[in-house]
Design goal:
Layout: H1 3-9, H2 11-19, H3 25-36, H4 42-48, H5 55-69, H6 71-84, H7 112-118, H8 120-127, H9 131-140, H10 146-152, H11 159-173, H12 175-191, H13 204-221, H14 235-238, E1 244-246, E2 275-279, H15 286-298, E3 308-313, H16 314-317, H17 326-332, H18 341-350, E4 355-360, H19 384-393, E5 401-406, H20 413-416, E6 419-425, H21 430-440, H22 444-455, H23 458-463, H24 467-475, H25 477-481, H26 491-506, H27 517-520, H28 522-537, E7 543-544, H29 545-548, H30 555-559, E8 563-565, E9 576-579, H31 582-595, H32 603-609, H33 614-617, H34 634-659, H35 674-697, E10 709-711, H36 716-726, H37 729-736, E11 743-745, H38 753-763, E12 770-773, H39 780-787, E13 794-798, H40 806-816, E14 824-826, H41 837-846, E15 852-854, H42 862-874, E16 880-882, H43 889-900, E17 908-910, H44 918-930, E18 936-938, H45 946-956, E19 966-967, H46 976-985, E20 989-990
Parallel strand pairs: 2-5, 2-6, 3-4, 4-5, 10-11, 11-12, 12-13, 13-14, 14-15, 15-16, 16-17, 17-18, 19-20
Antiparallel strand pairs: 1-6, 7-9, 8-9
Amino acid sequence: MRVQDLVLNQRTEILRVLCSSGSAEPVEHVTDILLSQGELTWEDYQSIHVSGRPLYTNARQLLDVVYLKGESSCGLFLEALKQVLPEEQPAGFSFPDHWWDPEVREECQNTFCQTLLTQRPSLVSTLQHCVDGALEALLTSAHFTSADCEGIRLPLRTPSQQARCLLDHVRAKGEAAAKFLLEYIQQGEESGSILNKKTQTVSREFLKFQKKLRSSLSAQSCFLSTYGGTSHMSLDDIYTDGQLELAEACPDVHGPIGLKDITGEVGMINEEADTVLVSGEAGSGKSTLLQRLHLLWAREAALLEYLLLFPFSCRRLNTELSELSFKELLFQHCCWPDRDQDEIFDFIQDHPHLILFTFDGLDELKQSFSDEHRLCCPTQRAPVHVLLFNLIQGSLLKGVRKVVTSRPSAVTPVLKKNLCKEVLLKGFSPSGIDCFVRKHHSDPTVAAKVLQSLHTNTTLLGLCHSPVLCWIVSCCHKELLGCGEGSPQTITDVYLTIVEHFFQHHSPLRSTGKISWHREYLDPVLRLGQLAFKGIVSTCYIFSDKDLDPCAITKEDLSLGFLIQSKDLSVFRSKCYEFLHVTMQCFFAAVYVVVSKDLDRSTIPKLFELKNLKETSLRTACFSACLLYQQVDECSLDKDATAVETPNLQMTATFASGLLSQRHRSLWLHCCPATAIDRKTRQVSKCLSKGMQKHFKSIPQPVAGEKKSMHAMPGFVWLIKCIYEMQECSIAKDAMSKLEVDHLKLTYCNIGPVECTALAFVLQHLNNPVGLQLDNNTVGDVGVEQLLPCMHICHSLYLRNNNITDEGIHKLIAKSIQCDNFHKIALFNNRLTDACTQDFSLLLKTKQDFISLRLGNNNITAEGAKQLAEGLRVNKSLKFLGLWGNSIGDAGAEALASALEGNTTLVWLSLVGNGIGSAGACALSKVVKNNVSLEELWLTENCITRMGVECLIEALQHNANVKSIWYVLRNNDLCLEEVEEMAQRESRLLF
């Protein structure tokens, strides 16, 4: 039978094979091959692939075009079909054994556009892994516009469809664009930056399992699962990026990173390790971030280098009591293959670099990380936590990439040494808050009103940097922003409001009046609180029906909405429950601690001292029902209990502090004697005072000649937050009266706007001025505003790398000018521009006792330098001025030189990396010549030539006050001979 007749006779079957999957990929792939062979023209291609037309119609058009072209085209079509669907050939559908003697075709690649056609299949295969990179390159080179990029990135398209659309756009742009793209791909392949792995040979069952896994993950991830999924919101509609930063400084990365960088090579510090840690405080969005990664992989929109992705919940793993093998863990807790489990498991072991695991909530695991129990055999059974720890450290399945989330306080040094990198998730940026609120409220008018109210209440705005609190505020905006009874100040205030919000919606008939839930719903609150407290103490976050019975939880209690059915199926084949969010569990636990009459008097001291609460709490008979893990190795668990319980115990203690504050104690007087509330309040106050004294006693004596400083120990910020939650100035005053240091260092302490509010509340009661070091945190503009109440007690403020903009600086300087003690500020690595220099100029003009201004690594240009020069011209006190890593150029250097020529106080000036050439150097030489105070001038990494250096050498001959060691001109425009000659002429120049 002729091949043309074979295509005609089997038309129905061919259409079924091409279209039965519902995906356009088979039709498009066959078309790619025929295009590359020259059998289809570009006009043919456009007639076949009409956007918006049904898949079957496009497939029929392809068959029509091929059939009309004759025997040769039909044969090439069947060969292409055989390549695309090698294992999809159904019974009754046959390919010819031999259909023609193929002619040797002359490859016509005279043009770059022609190359895009002839190499189309391989280009699609390569580009689908790097579409974003190619688009960015084409946009930067001006071959593409933003509109072109947006059209290609449409979410409807799969990565391969985006790659084809990209090739079509490039071809339409002409030869220059085609040449650029081909060179980009070639350079990427040579450098290894473009994924160009050989396609793994996988079985049909493997592909079915992959499809099943993607389908399962897509179903689990398409709706927001955190906060109990109460809003039933599509993740696409509500997901908002948080601030991601590398924990370790990376020379090639400045500022935030993206989702794709989590599993990428960016920021790697240990090439031998395979585990990435994403750390962030409770409510910072860690679970939602993983959910987003899962959904992107399931849709083939990201993480394409991984063929399989297995998600694990440490909260769920806590309920696994039996020992498992690695294979059982993998399939039972994620997705079980329908067939050929051994074959698929063998593939995973043979190709670990193609597999990705995620573990959410390592801090919620009952055991803290340990490398004591080594396990290498994937078929050997062991407790789940042993399997997990061996996966993380690489003893099991070395090469598999793992992404683990945890709160920072649960990250031990032992865990850190097994990480290839650590990524910090720091909640929402100001723009992130705006984005989330607008997504949460479908009515733009409501969203605008909420945002307007937040910006007039900066304390509440600061709280919203935590995604979970932003969610609460969005849900309760009417209660929080329109109550008229004083705006919320503390986290406890916000959680009390959301509890009221839930009860209000549970009792719609009473919606006209405010519900006194602490009276009307006290019994269910206590029952939920008892369950929550027991869970916190025993590191239990998923509860079975049996766990609910001892606390007498009723169906009515469940209907309130605080305890919801868990999406994580436990090992028991019954319903399981969890609180809306772990912070909500901590809040109810705190209510129980405050109100319950059944707890021992030692509960609060043990809670604040983070001692084992089991001996107190286990006196109640029902408590043991909650301890699911008592059946396994209790001794080893007790040994690690403190480390894993600390984060949630601390949060519970923080809420207890707020609930016992003077502003909220009246809520409990109807159910607790005033004497009991007073006793618990005194206990909390005593614990906080004792905890602060413990920190102060740890301060070492200063080295001779240095000032006394204190670097915050773990828990110090937590105690500060507890004091703030109590809103008692007397406690803050008592604590700070015992602190006598010149510098308080809180670097790398996860200080955000919320912590800044608490710090200002407490530190304003210091007896003596202090230098406050908050480098490498997430203070931001809102945090800066929260610090203003304590500025009068700060003699210096260090805010390096805190994402601060001109807006925050404007408010800070306005306050600082009024503070007599304030003399120094350091703001390296922020987002400052010329707009802030007018404020600093005013500071220099106004404060004639200001000593140090350091603005390195920002975005200040010549215009900003000219503004600063106006302030420097009249200032009579500044000793240190740092402007390295900006872009002031010659014009900026000349302006500064003009202002400083007659200066008599400046000792140190750094203009490193500012694009300064010889003109700027010659201007600065006048400062060197005439300034009697200047000792060091740093000009490294500029563009200074011999002429500029000659001016500096000549100036030095007139100034004997300059120090003998000048670290000046390294990395400028000088040849080796010039460097050697000038070094001999002036020993104070160090090249």
